[in-house]
UniProtKB/TrEMBL annotation:
This is DUF3243 domain-containing protein. It comes from the Bacteria. InterPro entries: DUF3243 (IPR021637), Uncharacterised_YmfJ (IPR024702), YmfJ/YflH_sf (IPR038292). It holds the Pfam family DUF3243. It comes from Thalassobacillus devorans.
Amino acid sequence: MSVLDNFDSWKDFLGDRLHQAEGQGMNQNAVSEIAYEIGGYLAKQVDAKNDQEAILRDLWNVADKEEQHAIANMMVKLVQDQGTPR
C-alpha cells in the first residue's frame, strides 16, 4: 500500500520527512518553499487517492500563489506532530 492511499499514512510520511529536514538544519523558509513546490507537483501530476487529497487538490487549483503558499504552510503545521515520535 502506498502512503498516498491513506491520509493518515500520508501525514505520518510527511511528518517524518519534516523531522528529517529539521534535523539536518533546514530552516522554516526552505521547508515552506519545498512544501509549496511539492503541493504544486501533487496537484498537477498525482491522482488523488482519497477524499482528503481530492479536496486539497481542488483547493490548490482554485488558489492564487499566495493562497497556495498558505495551504503549503498549513500542511507543514498539520504534520509537524505526525510521524515517528522524536
